[in-house]
Amino acid sequence: MPYEHGGSHAFPNLPGLLDSVGNTPVVRLDNLTMCGEGRLVAKLESANPGGSVKDRAAWHIIRDAEERGLIRRGATIIESSSGNFGIALAMIGASRGYRVIAIVDPKISAVNRSLFAAFGAEVIVVDEKDDSGSYHKTRIAYANRLHREIPGSFRPDQCFNPLNGEAHYQSTARELLAAMGSRLSAVVCTVSTGGQLGGISRYLRRFAPHVKVVGVDVRGSTVFGGEAHGYLTPGVGLSWTPDNLDDLSAVDEVYLLSDEDVFVSCRTLVRAEGVLAGVSTGAALLVACRLAMKASAREHIAFLATDRGERYLQTAFDERWLLEHGMSTDTSLDGLRRRAASLTPFSTNPKVDCANYRRELAEQLDSPTARRTLRRAG
Ligand SMILES: Cc1ncc(COP(=O)(O)O)c(C=O)c1O
After folding, report:
1. In angstroms, rounded to a whole number, what is the distance separating the alpha carbons of residues 108 and 100?
2. Ligand 1: which residue has its CA nearest to atom 15?
């Protein structure tokens, strides 16, 4: 019989596991930039208990559902995620007594499959591609169907649920500004569901409008428009502009990177600074480095190191895998700085250039968030 409240009686001053989500370290990086250039600062989201930034949104959404009585111990949580959001839910499910079913696609890594199994979460693989050649829409539609079939189940709905962005508005952005104050001159975020970039950009526009906010996507994804094609970078990308990123005027600049840029950068980060982070962190780092190289020594450029690098030991950190996929294995500081120097923004006016919204999609895919919104409107 698990303790319902007994734990806090026994140890009145100790936090529970989920109290350790957020308040991650903010550290200075000394080796990638030169004297006189801007300073690089990393927020180490790998310090979250589930190992990634996604713990924040997952716990914010589940805690909200618990508080509103939408979910009870023993209930089933169903989500479309092959990666960190699903792993965060699996961790929360184990801690709070929920069954978790992750709807994944064949691109899921062996490590993530093992992590789901370790936490006791179930996995369903959807192998039908959608009209954009990715699996996002077919996975979401499947998750929504299953949600309707399993009574009392809960769908966090990370792609359409505004609580995803709100988690970062209330925690990540606030923590960054509290740690850095007026020294913070720019923040760089990668994008998929838009939770991070949407929440952080809205917060900074309101409370620190002088801070430049920069979004990063990978070529082939069309969050900011552009040409759709396959890509290898995990964690980043979507085939439309997500609703969590509904105010593109809060984003100053947008960059699109190649897979090679991203993989080379995450490998260089660990060699040069000792920060073992995941692939998408390489994307944010490269753009942050480009900004720092053009900034003055007083300016601090922050980026999120979004997950643990151990998850990529069989891919990004395996030279054979990289060579098989036609990518450079270079980890030199000069190489990274040359790549950073050659970057140009995809847009310096994303509100005008980049909107690729699909407002009808939430309803088409039968998103529970859309249903709740429609019920409220009706
Ligand atoms: C490692 C990593 N980086 C970046 C992102 C993008 O974050 P968001 O979905 O908040 O846009 C994700 C999303 O899954 C991720 O797992």
Report:
1. 17
2. 235
Three-state secondary-structure class, residue 285:
helix
pLDDT band at 12 (very low <50, low <70, confident <90, very high): confident
User: Tens of pLDDT along 328-337?
Assistant: 999 999 999 9
Q: What is the pLDDT of residues 154-167, one digit of tens each?
A: 999 999 999 999 99
Percentage, residues of the chain above pLDDT 70: 96
Cβ neighbours around 224 below 10 Å, total: 23
In the chain the domains, ranked by start, together with CATH numbers, are 10-51+162-351 (3.40.50.1100), 54-161 (3.40.50.1100)
Structure tokens at 342: 């050659």
Biggest alpha carbon–alpha carbon distance for the chain: 60
Burial 127-161 (b: 16+ CB within 10 A, else e): eeebeeebbbbbbbbbbbebbeeeeebbbbbbbbb
d(CA 32, CA 298): 16
pLDDT single digits (tens) 60-88: 999 999 999 999 999 999 999 989 999 99
Residue 82 beta carbon below 6 angstroms from any ligand 1 atom: no
Pairing of β 26-29 and β 39-44: antiparallel
Query: How many Å lie between the centroid of ligand 1 and the Cα of residue 191?
Result: 6
From 56, 171, 193, give the residue whose CB has the most ligand 1 atoms within 8 Å, as the site to mutate. Answer: 193
pLDDT grade, residue 374 (50/70/90)?
A: low
Taking the centre of ligand 1 as the mean of its atom positions, its distance from the CA of residue 36, in whole angstroms, is: 32
Q: 161 CB less than 6 Å from ligand 1?
A: no
134 lines ligand 1 (CB under 6 A): no
Helix or strand holding residue 268 (H, E): helix 259-273
Q: Ligand 1 mean position to 15 CA, how many Å?
A: 27
